[in-house]
Amino acid sequence: MIRFDAATKRYPDGTVAVDQLTLEAPSGAITVLVGPSGCGKTTSLRMVNRMIEPTSGTVWLDDTDTASLPAHELRRRIGYVIQNAGLFPHRTVLDNVATVPLLLGEDRRRARASALELVERVGLDPALAKRYPAQLSGGQQQRVGVARALAADPPVMLMDEPFSAVDPVVREQLQDEFLRLQGELGKTIVFVTHDIDEAIKLGDQVAVLRVGGTLAQLATPAELLARPIDAFVAGFVGRDRGYRALAFAHGRNLPVREEPTVAVGSSHPGSAAGLAGWILAVDAERRPQGWLPTADELDETVTDSRLHRGGTLATQGGALRSALDACLSSPSGRGVVVDDDGRLLGSVTAREVLELIEERER
Amino acid sequence: MSVDVLPLDASSSPLAFWSYFLDHRSTDLGWLWDHTWLSVVPVVVGLVLALPLGWLARRHAWVYPPMMSVTGLLYTIPSIALFVLIPPLFGLSVLSPLQVPIALSVYSTSLLVRVVADGLAAVPSETVQAATALGYRPLARFTRVELPIAVPVITAGLRVAIVANVSIVAVAGTIGLDNLGRLFDQGFTLSVNEPYYPPIVLGIVLCVLLALVLDAVVLVVDRLLTPWRRAVAAR
């Protein structure tokens, strides 16, 4: 647990970066600090490991006042990941990861052996272990940064915009893997971002800070979307809040209807009678591949190139947002629902999803 | 090629410096050795002094401008003046074996303070921050992270300093201190009625060779210290 107790950072020129911040980041959870530039989110983060010393107030790490420890000892107990990873260019991936264990006096061979395990754990090819950071892509470097922060198995991790310097596709992969890793490790994490979508995706709780370094709202992502406390938070959380909140609403009982299919590669799709314009094509494993227009000659072979691939897929038990999106994006108007292995369960219509949304507790 | 025992007669041949060398081999090799250590030791002393000074200039922004002014000023003092000024300042005799190394250490330090400060400034700030955040204490951070990353800039400065020293040491030869500069003095002395070049050419050849060898040594050291830079090229 990390607890800010009226923590304040005032610079000699009078600028207040963080003003009386009181906030608790519970153990085993991800607390995201988010806000526009100048809101003091990075300053707050750095007060935890005393890269920045608070002018007044206290930051607690469990029952320890962080100011009571020598700074370097405190920092060795806290993992730290920054934007652009900040890797040591003169050390191999393996030695980068082994940094903190070596500082703590572990012997080199053991430190490297456990570093190699971590390299794999963050999803990197172990063959990269002997490379230098400049030989890696931005996304790979960021993974090394995460591995390095985890190396001494600290209970607490601080992450300062760790995924903001990579392209959107890689960022999403990194976020997903970060959540998977956190599911296994259960660290106490404080995560800084300026990206509200990232905050909502990753946070168990989200602290929205406003310029001047004050806490505007501390809430779960769903609460933040449903009940922003004031105009600033509402504006910062942004548009489409109602729709985005559906990402946290789960429709366990999607009323899935059986959906007729044709197999890709078959030339005899069977009866298409009664189907309004489109028939769903599946592969041999019954994984949906796309929609085939029934206006086409149905006795021709069903090939990949003839399929309309606009429709997204919803999973049974997944968020209502993806169920609704599956309906809206499907050319037939029927949203495709699959199981966890990606096999077809059936379809659902937008009207049915909307009924579930309306039934849901508000 | 015939080796003439009378150097004066062979002075017209472009390779006459070689016969001159063979005739005075032991003296010349002695001077070459003197020249070598006089060029190298001050650079080592200069580096040892420049590391803390450069760190200071980097650490405290206000130190940098005055330190650069002072070191720049020291570097502009003509070497011959410095050779003459040092014995009284340090209480040495007029022709002391220490005055040249002291003077050259002043030059090397002046040159290398800026090099070290700029080399440290070139270390990416996120790398320094990461080192701090991972729990390096300031001295360990300097020696294990900042300095190794600054090596390419520092060795580039060392190459300049060492080659400059080879040339400045020769000046000390002309005031009678033992090193390859004595060859120029000899050439001047022997050119009574007509110019006599062999010792002068020999001096130039040996100085250039020495500079090339020392430069290569620094280059090799640089490559040994920075395997990570070549790995980038192999990407």
TrEMBL record, chain A:
Top-tier EC class: translocase
A Pfam short name: ABC_tran
Keyword Acetylation recorded: no
EC number(s) from the headed UniProt entry: 7.6.2.9
MF terms in GO: ABC-type quaternary ammonium compound transporting activity; ATP binding; ATP hydrolysis activity
Domain ABC transporter as annotated: residue spans: 2-237
Keywords of the record: ATP-binding, Nucleotide-binding, Transport
Highest taxon of the lineage: Bacteria
SMART domains: AAA
Gene3D superfamilies hit by this protein: P-loop containing nucleotide triphosphate hydrolases
Family membership noted in the UniProt record: Belongs to the ABC transporter superfamily.
Annotated protein name in UniProt: ABC-type quaternary amine transporter
Species lineage: Bacteria, Bacillati, Actinomycetota, Actinomycetes, Propionibacteriales
From TrEMBL, chain B:
Organism of this sequence: Marmoricola endophyticus
Alphabetic keyword roster: Membrane, Transmembrane, Transmembrane helix, Transport
SUPFAM superfamilies tied to this protein: MetI-like
Membrane spanning residue stretches: 36-56, 68-86, 196-221
Family to which the UniProt record says this protein belongs: Belongs to the binding-protein-dependent transport system permease family.
Domain (ABC transmembrane type-1) ranges: 32-218
Gene3D superfamilies assigned: MetI-like
Membrane topology (UniProt): Multi-pass membrane protein
Family annotation (Pfam families): BPD_transp_1 (PF00528)
Gene Ontology CC entries for this record: plasma membrane
Primary location recorded for the protein, binned into one broad class: membrane
Gene Ontology terms describing biological process: glycine betaine transport; transmembrane transport
Name assigned to this protein: Glycine/betaine ABC transporter permease
Superkingdom, taxonomy of origin: Bacteria
Compartments, as annotated in UniProt: Cell membrane; Membrane
